[in-house]
Amino acid sequence: MNLVADGQDVQYGLLESTDIEGMVGLLADVFSRFDPPAMAVGLSFEDVRQIVTLFGQRAPNDGLTIVARAQSSGKLVGVMLTDDFAGPPPPDIDRVAPRFDPIAAVLEGLDEQYRRVRRVVPGQFLHLFMLGVDAEFGGRGIAQALIRLTLENGKRKGFKTAVTEATGNVSQHIFRNLGFAERFRTAYMEFAYQGRRPFETIVQHEAMVLMERNLEAPA
After folding, report:
1. Mind spelling out the 3-state secondary structure of the chain?
2. pTM, to two decimals
């Protein structure tokens, strides 16, 4: 399904089953190299690949994930992995590398705070989970386009609210510019897990932030 082309050799559309391998490789590369929490706990490419595979295997059927591809080569150059915030965790989630446990804990903590103030029901809360853009295609506004198209697609499908957990300054800035507001945050320097502070090496980013946007309000 072709949604839009930006005139710069980039085309956007819904994730298809044939895109899963490319999506997994792209997000594993981006998160293992650039995501502050992933880098702090030492997640490898293979660790992230396993996580993305678990969370992304049902994405083609959900019809919520938008991808960007180079028109000339067909290569996947951007992904906004998205799901229903009310959906169950993927099967075999307990098989993820233990290094991911502190990240899972901080995500769960933020999500639990949010669920205390929002009645989260299926089909209403769009979860923008993992955003990644190929480094060679940076600076073209691909991340912003992926988010915008994801929100438009989710709204067409009846979702009322969009939710994301943004891990770094850049992603938080992008989401704020697209109408997201901060609801809860966990400071990296203060977060403790099993008697240690797994994110204390993160000094250029202050916190992981849960943000939301009302999809029924004007953009």
Report:
1. CEEEECCCCEEEEECCHHHHHHHHHHHHHHHHHHCHHHHHHCCCHHHHHHHHHHHHCCHHHHCCCEEEEECCCCCEEEEEEEEECCCCCCCCHHHCCHHHHHHHHHHHHHHHHHHHHCCCCCCCEEEEEEEEECHHHCCCCHHHHHHHHHHHHHHHCCCCEEEEEECCHHHHHHHHHCCCEEEEEEECCCCCECCECCCCCCCCCCEEEEEEEECCCCC
2. 0.94
Q: Which residue has the tokens 């799901």?
A: 83
Tens-digit pLDDT profile for residues 71-130: 888 899 999 999 999 998 888 777 888 999 999 999 999 999 999 999 999 999 999 999
Residue 28's identity, in one-letter code, is A
Q: Which CATH class is domain 2-214?
A: alpha beta
Kindly give the pairing relationship between strand 125-133 and strand 161-166: parallel
Give the span between the Cα atoms of 93 and 55, in whole angstroms.
9
Each domain of the chain, given as residue ranges in start order, spans 2-214
Query: Whose CA is closest to 131, among 170, 94, 101?
Result: 170
Looking at residue 118, its amino acid is: R
